[in-house]
Amino acid sequence: MKKFFYNISSGNPGALFMPCFTSFLDGICKILPAALIFDVLNTIYLSFANPETPLNTTRLWTVCAILIGWMMIQYLASGFAYSKTFTAAYDASANGRTALAEHLRKLSLGFLGSRDPGDLTTMMLGDYATVETTISHYLPQLVSAAAFPVIAFIALVFINWQMAAAMFVALPFSLLIVWLSTGLQLRLGKNHVQAKVDSASRLQEYLLGMREIKSHNLSGERFQRIQEAFARLMRESIRLEGIIGPVMMVAIAIMRAGLTLMIFAGTFLLVGGELTLPVFLVFLLLGTRVFEPMTMVLVNYAEIRYSVLSAERIMQIRQEKPLPGEKDAPAGNSIEFEQVTFAYENTDVLKNVSFSISPKSITALVGPSGSGKSTITRLIARFWDVQGGRVLIDGRDIKNIDPEKLLTRISMVFQDVYLFKDTILNNIKVGKMNASREEIEWAAKQACCHDFIMKLPQGYDTPVGEGGCTLSGGEKQRVSIARALLKDAPIVLLDEATASLDPENETQVQRAINALVSNKTVVIIAHRLKTIRGADKIIVLEDGKVVELGGHEELLAKQGLYNRMCSLQQQSAGWSMKAS
Ligand SMILES: Nc1ncnc2c1ncn2[C@@H]1O[C@H](COP(=O)(O)OP(=O)(O)OP(=O)(O)O)[C@@H](O)[C@H]1O
């Protein structure tokens, strides 16, 4: 139970105290009228049972007045409970979603990459919505279902213990059925969650991959994958409701069998003169009321169990440890790899890699595709932690540095640029959130963006699509260079930064990059080797190992892999497409 409250409150069970307490008060307020009705029945009965006793109308009017006053109190109590539960529910989901988003940012990309893409979206939207409904709708029912029977049983035992026992005798059997079905519910719930995650992932894949689907005419096969995912979701939904529903119906029927037993016992006791009619009537009245919240809980039990699963999924991620390290980033900017071994999954991608990069120097990473160049830049930025060896900046192991502080010292320009669904101005501003418009325009000019931006309908205030789909590849690349210029970090990592630029822009962008990298520690990945001839150091990688290291001339003289790559590039420079 403690775990349930902890999980559905996203780790803040104290926030559920007020909704539970006010729901409890609200429930108590609903019980009192039954006691007053008992008094009314008793008063009327006394007059009918003893014809010489006149009907005590003063008492009846007093009870009516109390009931009217009580209605007001009950209305206020319900309103109060309603506002507290709904506020707590929306707080829990809004704060929870923000906290989860914040937490995700602190996790390694390795962890995020291991999750199904639809999984986190389902969690952010679906799981939090489920938890929200549980707090706003089911929590009050749970409180009433837990409190009512206990209070009612204690009160009724004092009135007539045989009747109370008859009313509640079936309840333990009903609860036993619910308990026995827990394992089944868990299994069905997990299958349903998995089906939901799969559907979200397939849908995401379908929408994001629309260009490939169209260009390769994959619509049939891809559409079938979505159809299958949705069909499975439908089957799991039916299974969840169709199997759990009848089980709960049996539990409800057994619980309510107590009422029938109570009527039998009441009739028996009434006939034997051991029970008065008003007491019998009060038991009948309370019998239906007491089991009402429990019936509601059992009707919604599948949903409640489902929300437990949702809350557990959320908490599992929330409890995932962020990358460790609290220290400030060092002032110096030298980089060193000390016998680094790294694997994304099981196969080592980098094997015993060692090299050092002096501050304010330019180091190029070259090597065949898949040799580990991009991986090295990602490890410098600590998107992942290494499994063996150390990555040092200014002589300090980056595992001990706060990842966010480390990233303030690093600018990155990736091959694939992501632009947010926002104005182009705000997209450049990502590099420095407090940058002035002048600074942004300066960076855009340096990165050769200014001219194309001014041609857009609203200039810098033109919205660009999610992922930057309304800009060309070259334009996106230049925007990302502008971001890096604005950030002005002392370490610059360039991954194929000029890959998608046309020859016309390339010279200008090279000039912009020169401005970006001057006086910085630069690590550059360039497939076009002519662009890195002037680098202070060239590290040649092959199959995750450093095979050559040195300056351009020195490496050419070695007649090794670098020399071969340069020769091949010279040959391919004269390549042109020919029709056969
Ligand atoms: N996120 C990932 N998960 C699993 N494996 C990965 C991941 N990223 C890269 N790899 C694998 O790691 C190896 C090195 O990849 P990396 O991107 O570092 O190579 P690269 O030299 O930069 O290649 P390219 O020049 O083609 O960009 C490759 O075999 C690649 O398939």
Automatic annotation (TrEMBL):
- Origin, by domain of life? Bacteria
Q: How does it sit in the membrane?
A: Multi-pass membrane protein
Identify the residues that the record assigns to the ABC transporter domain, covering every copy: 335-568
Query: Which chain positions lie within coiled-coil regions?
Result: none
* UniProt cross-references to Pfam families, sorted A to Z: ABC_membrane, ABC_tran
Annotated SMART domains: AAA
Q: Give GO terms: molecular function aspect only.
A: ABC-type oligopeptide transporter activity; ATP binding; ATP hydrolysis activity
Q: Which UniProt keywords apply?
A: ATP-binding, Membrane, Nucleotide-binding, Transmembrane, Transmembrane helix, Transport
Q: Where in the cell is it found?
A: Cell membrane
The record's listing under PANTHER family reads: ATP-BINDING CASSETTE SUB-FAMILY B MEMBER 10, MITOCHONDRIAL, ATP-DEPENDENT PERMEASE MDL1, MITOCHONDRIAL
Record-given protein name: ATP-binding cassette, subfamily B
Annotated source species: Desulfotruncus arcticus DSM 17038
User: Which lineage do the record's taxonomy fields give for this organism?
Assistant: Bacteria, Bacillati, Bacillota, Clostridia, Eubacteriales
